[in-house]
Amino acid sequence: MWVSSRHVAAWVLGASLGAGCHASRALAPLEAGQHAVTVSAGGPFVEYAGAPVPLPFVGVGWRYGIDGRTDVHAAVYPTGPILIGVFSWDLGVSTMVLDADGGRPRIMLDMNTTWHVGDNGPGGEGTAFRMFLQPSAVFTWDLGKPVGTARHHLYVGGEVFYQPFPQARAVPGLMLGTEIQARPRVGVQLELGWHGFHRNTDVGAVTWIGPGNVGSIRATLGVNVRLPKKGEGRRAQRAAGGAP
Asked: How far is it, in rounded angstroms, from Cα 130 to Cα 12?
Protein backbone atom coordinates (compact mmCIF):
# COMPACT_ATOMS: atom_id res chain seq x y z
CA MET A 1 0.00 0.00 0.00
CA TRP A 2 1.21 3.51 -0.79
CA VAL A 3 1.94 6.08 1.92
CA SER A 4 -1.09 7.79 3.44
CA SER A 5 -1.94 11.28 2.16
CA ARG A 6 -1.45 12.69 5.66
CA HIS A 7 2.26 11.90 5.58
CA VAL A 8 3.05 11.95 1.87
CA ALA A 9 4.61 15.44 1.88
CA ALA A 10 6.97 14.60 4.74
CA TRP A 11 7.76 11.15 3.28
CA VAL A 12 8.42 12.53 -0.22
CA LEU A 13 10.60 15.40 1.00
CA GLY A 14 12.38 13.30 3.60
CA ALA A 15 13.09 10.39 1.26
CA SER A 16 14.17 12.60 -1.64
CA LEU A 17 16.41 14.76 0.52
CA GLY A 18 17.78 11.69 2.29
CA ALA A 19 19.24 10.32 -0.92
CA GLY A 20 19.71 13.81 -2.32
CA CYS A 21 21.98 14.74 0.58
CA HIS A 22 25.03 13.28 -1.10
CA ALA A 23 27.24 16.22 -2.07
CA SER A 24 27.28 16.80 -5.83
CA ARG A 25 29.43 14.41 -7.82
CA ALA A 26 29.34 16.61 -10.94
CA LEU A 27 32.16 19.09 -10.23
CA ALA A 28 34.78 17.71 -12.61
CA PRO A 29 34.96 14.43 -14.55
CA LEU A 30 37.34 11.67 -13.58
CA GLU A 31 40.02 10.49 -15.95
CA ALA A 32 39.04 7.66 -18.27
CA GLY A 33 39.21 4.38 -16.38
CA GLN A 34 39.61 6.01 -12.96
CA HIS A 35 37.62 4.99 -9.88
CA ALA A 36 36.72 7.14 -6.87
CA VAL A 37 35.08 6.57 -3.49
CA THR A 38 32.71 9.22 -2.12
CA VAL A 39 31.39 9.67 1.41
CA SER A 40 28.90 12.35 2.48
CA ALA A 41 27.31 13.17 5.83
CA GLY A 42 24.62 15.73 6.63
CA GLY A 43 21.14 16.61 5.57
CA PRO A 44 18.24 19.02 5.87
CA PHE A 45 17.86 21.04 9.05
CA VAL A 46 14.86 20.14 11.21
CA GLU A 47 13.61 21.58 14.47
CA TYR A 48 14.70 19.41 17.39
CA ALA A 49 14.28 20.53 21.03
CA GLY A 50 13.67 24.04 19.73
CA ALA A 51 16.95 24.21 17.79
CA PRO A 52 17.82 23.66 14.11
CA VAL A 53 19.68 20.37 13.71
CA PRO A 54 20.86 18.79 10.42
CA LEU A 55 19.71 15.20 9.95
CA PRO A 56 22.82 12.98 9.86
CA PHE A 57 22.21 11.14 6.59
CA VAL A 58 25.30 9.25 5.42
CA GLY A 59 25.96 8.29 1.83
CA VAL A 60 28.73 5.93 0.69
CA GLY A 61 29.33 5.87 -3.03
CA TRP A 62 31.50 5.06 -6.03
CA ARG A 63 32.35 6.84 -9.29
CA TYR A 64 33.93 5.63 -12.52
CA GLY A 65 35.30 7.75 -15.35
CA ILE A 66 34.23 6.52 -18.77
CA ASP A 67 36.04 8.79 -21.24
CA GLY A 68 37.38 11.82 -19.37
CA ARG A 69 34.11 13.72 -19.83
CA THR A 70 31.43 11.34 -18.55
CA ASP A 71 31.20 9.48 -15.22
CA VAL A 72 28.80 6.95 -13.75
CA HIS A 73 28.12 6.92 -10.02
CA ALA A 74 26.15 5.07 -7.35
CA ALA A 75 25.63 5.32 -3.59
CA VAL A 76 23.78 3.74 -0.67
CA TYR A 77 22.43 5.55 2.42
CA PRO A 78 22.74 3.23 5.44
CA THR A 79 21.42 5.68 8.06
CA GLY A 80 18.07 6.22 6.30
CA PRO A 81 16.32 3.22 7.94
CA ILE A 82 17.33 4.53 11.38
CA LEU A 83 16.37 8.17 10.81
CA ILE A 84 13.16 7.95 8.74
CA GLY A 85 12.55 4.21 8.25
CA VAL A 86 13.52 4.38 4.56
CA PHE A 87 16.36 2.53 2.81
CA SER A 88 17.70 4.44 -0.21
CA TRP A 89 20.22 4.06 -2.99
CA ASP A 90 20.99 5.97 -6.17
CA LEU A 91 22.39 5.43 -9.67
CA GLY A 92 23.39 8.18 -12.06
CA VAL A 93 25.53 9.55 -14.87
CA SER A 94 27.16 12.97 -15.24
CA THR A 95 28.76 14.58 -18.27
CA MET A 96 30.76 17.73 -18.96
CA VAL A 97 29.21 19.92 -21.64
CA LEU A 98 31.69 22.82 -21.32
CA ASP A 99 35.15 22.77 -19.75
CA ALA A 100 36.45 25.50 -17.45
CA ASP A 101 38.67 28.13 -19.07
CA GLY A 102 40.08 30.95 -16.95
CA GLY A 103 37.13 32.69 -15.33
CA ARG A 104 34.61 30.61 -17.27
CA PRO A 105 33.06 27.83 -15.18
CA ARG A 106 32.88 24.21 -16.13
CA ILE A 107 29.30 23.11 -16.84
CA MET A 108 28.28 19.57 -15.98
CA LEU A 109 24.89 17.92 -16.25
CA ASP A 110 23.94 15.05 -13.98
CA MET A 111 21.01 12.66 -14.21
CA ASN A 112 20.60 10.78 -10.97
CA THR A 113 17.89 8.31 -10.02
CA THR A 114 17.12 7.67 -6.35
CA TRP A 115 15.25 4.62 -5.09
CA HIS A 116 13.51 4.28 -1.72
CA VAL A 117 11.83 1.44 0.17
CA GLY A 118 10.37 2.07 3.62
CA ASP A 119 7.64 2.09 6.22
CA ASN A 120 4.48 4.04 5.40
CA GLY A 121 4.65 5.70 8.81
CA PRO A 122 1.74 6.49 11.15
CA GLY A 123 -1.59 6.03 9.42
CA GLY A 124 -0.13 3.84 6.67
CA GLU A 125 0.15 0.12 6.26
CA GLY A 126 2.83 -2.05 4.75
CA THR A 127 5.84 -0.88 2.76
CA ALA A 128 6.09 2.01 0.34
CA PHE A 129 8.32 2.27 -2.73
CA ARG A 130 9.37 5.46 -4.47
CA MET A 131 11.67 6.36 -7.35
CA PHE A 132 12.83 9.90 -8.08
CA LEU A 133 14.54 11.46 -11.07
CA GLN A 134 17.11 14.02 -9.94
CA PRO A 135 18.48 16.07 -12.87
CA SER A 136 20.96 18.81 -12.00
CA ALA A 137 23.22 21.37 -13.64
CA VAL A 138 26.43 22.42 -11.88
CA PHE A 139 28.69 25.40 -12.69
CA THR A 140 32.21 24.95 -11.26
CA TRP A 141 35.16 27.34 -11.09
CA ASP A 142 38.68 25.90 -10.70
CA LEU A 143 40.66 27.78 -8.06
CA GLY A 144 44.31 27.99 -7.05
CA LYS A 145 47.22 25.84 -8.15
CA PRO A 146 46.74 22.13 -8.86
CA VAL A 147 47.24 19.69 -6.00
CA GLY A 148 48.53 16.72 -7.92
CA THR A 149 46.22 16.66 -10.93
CA ALA A 150 43.19 18.17 -9.13
CA ARG A 151 42.11 21.76 -8.44
CA HIS A 152 40.16 23.42 -5.66
CA HIS A 153 36.55 24.13 -6.67
CA LEU A 154 33.77 26.63 -6.06
CA TYR A 155 30.39 25.72 -7.51
CA VAL A 156 26.72 26.62 -7.77
CA GLY A 157 23.90 24.61 -9.25
CA GLY A 158 20.25 23.75 -9.47
CA GLU A 159 18.37 20.47 -9.31
CA VAL A 160 14.90 18.96 -9.20
CA PHE A 161 13.65 15.88 -7.32
CA TYR A 162 10.85 14.57 -9.52
CA GLN A 163 8.55 11.71 -8.52
CA PRO A 164 6.82 10.35 -11.65
CA PHE A 165 4.43 7.94 -9.87
CA PRO A 166 2.01 7.25 -8.26
CA GLN A 167 1.44 11.01 -8.19
CA ALA A 168 3.68 13.44 -10.05
CA ARG A 169 5.52 15.63 -7.54
CA ALA A 170 8.53 17.91 -7.93
CA VAL A 171 10.84 19.49 -5.35
CA PRO A 172 13.27 22.10 -6.80
CA GLY A 173 16.60 22.83 -5.15
CA LEU A 174 19.63 25.12 -5.26
CA MET A 175 23.19 24.35 -4.16
CA LEU A 176 26.35 26.26 -3.28
CA GLY A 177 29.57 24.52 -2.36
CA THR A 178 33.31 24.20 -2.39
CA GLU A 179 35.84 21.37 -2.61
CA ILE A 180 39.33 21.76 -1.15
CA GLN A 181 42.02 19.31 -2.25
CA ALA A 182 43.50 18.24 1.09
CA ARG A 183 45.88 15.81 -0.63
CA PRO A 184 46.65 15.00 -4.29
CA ARG A 185 43.87 12.37 -4.38
CA VAL A 186 41.60 13.54 -1.55
CA GLY A 187 39.05 16.35 -1.75
CA VAL A 188 37.00 17.69 1.17
CA GLN A 189 33.65 19.09 0.14
CA LEU A 190 31.17 21.39 1.91
CA GLU A 191 27.79 21.97 0.28
CA LEU A 192 24.74 24.03 1.28
CA GLY A 193 21.36 23.46 -0.35
CA TRP A 194 17.88 24.96 -0.28
CA HIS A 195 15.09 22.63 -1.37
CA GLY A 196 11.35 23.02 -1.71
CA PHE A 197 11.64 26.82 -1.73
CA HIS A 198 8.39 27.07 -3.69
CA ARG A 199 6.21 26.17 -0.69
CA ASN A 200 5.88 26.09 3.07
CA THR A 201 7.19 22.68 4.14
CA ASP A 202 5.97 22.62 7.74
CA VAL A 203 3.84 19.53 7.13
CA GLY A 204 3.13 18.48 10.71
CA ALA A 205 5.15 15.26 10.77
CA VAL A 206 8.41 17.23 10.93
CA THR A 207 9.34 20.91 10.89
CA TRP A 208 11.91 21.65 8.20
CA ILE A 209 14.08 24.75 8.70
CA GLY A 210 14.14 27.25 5.85
CA PRO A 211 14.21 31.03 5.28
CA GLY A 212 10.81 32.48 6.17
CA ASN A 213 9.62 28.96 7.02
CA VAL A 214 9.79 28.13 3.31
CA GLY A 215 11.60 25.07 2.02
CA SER A 216 14.45 23.29 3.76
CA ILE A 217 18.10 24.25 4.19
CA ARG A 218 20.64 21.42 4.20
CA ALA A 219 24.36 21.17 4.93
CA THR A 220 26.52 18.31 3.68
CA LEU A 221 30.17 17.47 4.30
CA GLY A 222 31.83 15.15 1.82
CA VAL A 223 35.14 13.38 1.24
CA ASN A 224 36.14 12.27 -2.25
CA VAL A 225 39.02 9.84 -2.76
CA ARG A 226 40.27 9.36 -6.32
CA LEU A 227 41.94 5.98 -6.66
CA PRO A 228 45.09 5.48 -8.76
CA LYS A 229 44.54 3.96 -12.15
CA LYS A 230 45.92 0.50 -12.85
CA GLY A 231 49.69 0.69 -13.23
CA GLU A 232 49.84 4.36 -12.28
CA GLY A 233 51.87 3.73 -9.12
CA ARG A 234 54.52 1.77 -11.06
CA ARG A 235 54.75 4.52 -13.70
CA ALA A 236 55.26 7.12 -10.96
CA GLN A 237 58.02 5.01 -9.42
CA ARG A 238 59.80 4.70 -12.74
CA ALA A 239 59.50 8.44 -13.36
CA ALA A 240 61.05 9.10 -9.95
CA GLY A 241 63.89 6.63 -10.63
CA GLY A 242 62.46 3.95 -8.34
CA ALA A 243 62.18 0.24 -8.86
CA PRO A 244 60.91 -0.86 -12.30
From this structure: 8
Report yes or no on 113 lying in a domain: yes
Give yes or no for residue 119 having a pLDDT over 90: no
What's the CA gap between 125 and 209, in Å, rounded? Answer: 28
Q: What is the pTM of this model?
A: 0.83
**What number is the average pLDDT over the span 61-89?**
91
Q: Which domain holds residue 233?
A: 8-239
How many independent structural domains does the chain possess?
1
CA distance linking residue 203 with residue 8, whole number of Å: 9
CATH classification of the domain holding 98: 2.40.160.20
Strand partners, 221: 41, 190
For 222, counting Cβ atoms within 10 Å of its Cβ (0-12 exposed, 13-18 middle, 19+ buried), the class is buried
